[in-house]
Amino acid sequence: MTDQRRLAARTALIDPFRVMEIAEEAWALAASGRSIIWLLAGEPDFGTPPEAVAAAREASAGGRVQYTQSLGIPALREAISTYYGKRFGLDVPARRIAVTTGASGALSLALAATIDPGAQVLLTDPGYPCNRHFVHLYGGEPVCVPVGPDNAYQLDTALVKAHWSDRTRMLLLATPSNPTGTIVVPDELAAMADVVAARHGVLIVDEIYGELVYGRAPTTVLSHTDDAFVVNSFSKTFGMTGWRLGWLVVPAWAGDAIERLAQNLYIAAPAPSQAAGLACFQPSVWAQVDAHRRELEARRDVLVKGLRSLGFAVPVVPDGAFYVYADCSPIADDAVAFVRRLLHEGGVACTPGLDFGTNRANAHIRFSYTASSAQLSEALARIAAVIG
Amino acid sequence: MTDQRRLAARTALIDPFRVMEIAEEAWALAASGRSIIWLLAGEPDFGTPPEAVAAAREASAGGRVQYTQSLGIPALREAISTYYGKRFGLDVPARRIAVTTGASGALSLALAATIDPGAQVLLTDPGYPCNRHFVHLYGGEPVCVPVGPDNAYQLDTALVKAHWSDRTRMLLLATPSNPTGTIVVPDELAAMADVVAARHGVLIVDEIYGELVYGRAPTTVLSHTDDAFVVNSFSKTFGMTGWRLGWLVVPAWAGDAIERLAQNLYIAAPAPSQAAGLACFQPSVWAQVDAHRRELEARRDVLVKGLRSLGFAVPVVPDGAFYVYADCSPIADDAVAFVRRLLHEGGVACTPGLDFGTNRANAHIRFSYTASSAQLSEALARIAAVIG
Fold first, then answer.
1. What are the mean pLDDT values of chain B's consecutive 10-residue runs (388 residues total)?
2. How far is A13 from chain B (nearest CA, A)?
3. Domain B4-47+285-387 maps to which CATH number in 3.30.930.10, 2.60.40.2700, 3.90.1150.10, 3.30.450.40?
């Protein structure tokens, strides 16, 4: 059925998400009446703040829902600029902020603006799979550097220098990381930014989980340099995945190109979502974020402790996001098969490591703590029963 | 400021929209109290149907606004499938329909799936500028074939055959067209589809204005062949530009690749917008579309007659959409300068032809009839005064 002759070569490089198969099996089991505990999603279970829902409703009430400016409504760009001022004491002017259709839109814009065919991009393995696929989309070559617990599953200056070639154009980092939840500490991030700058390369930092860190203050690479693209999103911080709203902080040298690309690639981000996002920058919403952060920290502690007691290896306690990337090799040889057993025998849905790379990927499982502590305890009991 | 060394080569090929400069001047004039008649937008002035607004509100009421399936919520894909059945008597199964983030998302998906670097794509000049920019995005080479009034500003089999080279992979048509509003008649469209199929090429037909045709029944290329990508949108038919919702009908041979690309490129279209779109497929909404179509036809007649009487050449009466692409060369040498005069002296905002290509582009102006017939008459009077 597939006509390879008419498909672009890049399509062979884009993998499906394995988690979708697991999710479909889980939906089928749930539909048949089985109790499923969902630990596989990349989205919070808290939902969108009522203030944001009300703002979207108000913005669309008269039916006049039209294209906005390509880089976003001015008030929202100003609000994001003010966020950087209040949160980090930084001057990030609104003109450097592009409102995008989710973080996906931000990544797509930044890579379209900078990646020529054949350019290499340094990434972590494990890492968010869409990152390497976006690189393929524009003809670039992802160089997925294996990282492990010794380095908190992140790159460092030595690794960046060691893997930087004549063709390397970009370093793409995520802090905290999906799937590991680990961060790059600010000093190391600054040092890597300097290594990239010295090579006249491009730095992209994915900070979409930047507000969801535990036991430490949020940080941004922008405190060290203006010469970076920063990808951010309303999805994780504000429980707004379905609204598809993110932003990109753009270095001055790319501002004009980013605006032209935005005009042509997506015209504008969804207008009701932009109205919703604008309503997030008020104290009552931040109070909800603070409560969610405390709740997520407690869940993390339940899950890490419980998984370790069951024999999983969790060598680095995740600093943020809502993921535990657990090494299941002490218990099971094949993570995909084990994920299936956990689902079918235990009613616990989680994500196989193979979605995040090839570096010992099938020895790992990602557990999302997007369920209550009580559900997490129940999930741990079910996993214990499956292990036997 | 711009750092060409770090920008991808494609960024030099992506032009800004000139209309944005005109729009900014028009906003400034309006803000200073000038009366402006807006004939430049690519979006209807009717607004979103109340049914759709209510459905979005309901879908987001509890704050649970999460990612949907990458190809769209099943009910919406089914509703679009049913639309093809009821409207055209066609069997287009839901599995062949991908819900996208606007028609922009649909175009991006279809080209990402099929265009390798160096592949040539046949397009019309004049035409929708984003089309050629999407081709550049993926390293393809747009071949913009000059078309004029002799051919209703559309391609035909002779032109397709004449311009098809060893590197040509795709024909991209829009019917009705932006900026000309002219259609490809079904027999000619079928013949061109056959020419492309005989060359094992890819056909994309942009049908986003397909419901907005006057004095004739809507048609689709799918009545002739399943071997085409069809781009469609809720934006123009239902006044939903700001919601960013479209769809792509996918030929069977590309279904798997499109799903993988959608998962990675945008995860899912906005969930509230999908709920809004689902509410559009009901009789009360179609009654509104029918009324809008009648209103647009009347406006077209006012505008075409008026422009002709002022000395503009409108050699082909547009069949649909809400644009008149008028040749101003009998009146003015430089369309950009003339557009500026119409704005500053007459308070009439319209779009210079240079946004749509290079083929006698600066002899043309696009007028959008997105204002009432009364406003159109006033605009014509103002233009008459400017011409003197």
1. 89 88 90 96 93 98 94 97 98 98 97 97 97 96 98 98 98 98 98 98 98 97 98 98 98 96 93 98 98 98 98 98 98 96 97 96 97 97 96
2. 10
3. 3.90.1150.10
- Torsions phi, psi of A160, nearest 5? -65, -45
Beta bridge partners of B120: B141, B168
Chain B contact probe: residue of A265, A274, A356 with most B CBs at under 10 A: A265
Question: What type of residue sits at position A386?
Answer: V
pTM of this structure: 0.97
**Distance set, CA B75 to CA A23, A225, B88, B281, B311 (Å):** 19, 47, 20, 11, 51
Mean pLDDT for the stretch of residues A15-30: 88
- Where does residue B199 fall: left (phi above 0), alpha (psi -120 to 50 degrees), or beta otherwise? alpha
B103 near B246, Cβ under 8 Å?
yes
Q: Which of B117, B138, B253 sits opposite A6 (nearest CB)?
A: B253
ipTM passes above 0.90 = yes
B88: left (phi over 0), alpha (psi -120 to 50) or beta: alpha
**Sequence spans of domains, chain A:** 4-47+285-387, 51-281
> Exposed, middle or buried, A250 (CB in 10 Å: 0-12/13-18/19+)?
buried
User: Nearest Cβ partner of A243 from B65, B257, B261?
Assistant: B65
**Whether A6 and B56 lie within 8 Å, measured CB to CB:** no
Smallest Cβ distance to B53: which of A60, A239, A265?
A60
The CATH number of the structural domain formed by B51-281 is 3.40.640.10
The C-alpha atoms of residue A2 and residue B254 are separated, in whole angstroms, by: 6
Spatial contact of B82 and B97, defined as CB atoms under 8 Å apart: no
